[in-house]
From TrEMBL:
Interacts with the flavoprotein subunit within the SDH catalytic dimer. This is Succinate dehydrogenase assembly factor 2, mitochondrial. It comes from Postia placenta MAD-698-R-SB12. GO terms for cellular component: mitochondrial matrix. It comes from the Eukaryota. The keyword Protease does not apply. Keywords: Chaperone, Mitochondrion. GO terms for biological process: mitochondrial electron transport, succinate to ubiquinone; mitochondrial respiratory chain complex II assembly; tricarboxylic acid cycle.
Amino acid sequence: MSTSPRRAADPWLLPNTPEHLANTTTPADAPPPPAPLPRPGESVETMRARLVYQSRKRGTLESDLLLSTFAKEQLGVMDEAELKEFDKLMDEPDWDIYYWATNKRTPPERWASSPLLEKLRVHVKNEGKVVRRMPEL
């Protein structure tokens, strides 16, 4: 008869193990994002200004830094369709955006082939090693 205590599962999985990878996949049954607020008659300039603000005031510092620096560099050159796609991305939860952009989690089908998400991933790689700070509002 063994009297050794039973060990609990390790909550901190080693990176790139099968168990860890299984936990980093966005579940297929994840709920869709909430319906965005209707903004009838919003001009492109107003949308761009709103998105600059929203990218800075997300709620988590990691997402704030990632999205606000991306917005500062990209929103000025985006056309209306790209701005609307960015607006939809902003409706997603902070940590989901962060994990999708950093390639730590597979995005759901609705974002799997998004050119915008790919641009965000390139921004996140920061291959130029730019020191990034939160932009001024």
